[in-house]
């Protein structure tokens, strides 16, 4: 059965965040809220976590996983980013955007798109996730909690606990969460491409 943590959405309890971070370091797969919708997350190098996320979501090896980063300095360790892209990404973070960029050698190979060698990165504008990332000291490997054959992600922690009680190890609940995934912007080819229109306003990229 999954551990269930009720976390204050604006002032997350430090001890609780510490417990969640310890679980992640021990290999746990966690369902957690973000500024767009719920996500599944695990430690950066966890092969087991990656395979469990793939199984829950029925994903193939071309799926772009996302590195949930605390800040821009951390993001810059894991992707190659030129000056023009730097300015565009910097202006839109933190926020409801995922950016696909060429990965550095810091990114485990199993996370990369097999042909493009790219990875998704984002900086969330959410107090609970920011507290968790600060406690971890590294990005959280993530994917939207959207189950196969469903059009919208689940929005309630208790519902996720009921549905995925034997498939995830931890559920973090900080109240209602949005239903719309992030807007995905692909900069990897040198040309901007809007891959998915979601919670983030695309007008700044058009």
UniProtKB/TrEMBL annotation:
This is L-threonylcarbamoyladenylate synthase. It comes from the Bacteria. It comes from Streptomyces laculatispora. The keyword Nucleotidyltransferase applies. SUPFAM superfamilies: YrdC/RibB. It is an enzyme of class 2 (transferase). Residues 14-200 form the YrdC-like domain. InterPro entries: DHBP_synth_RibB-like_a/b_dom, Sua5-like_dom, SUA5_domain.
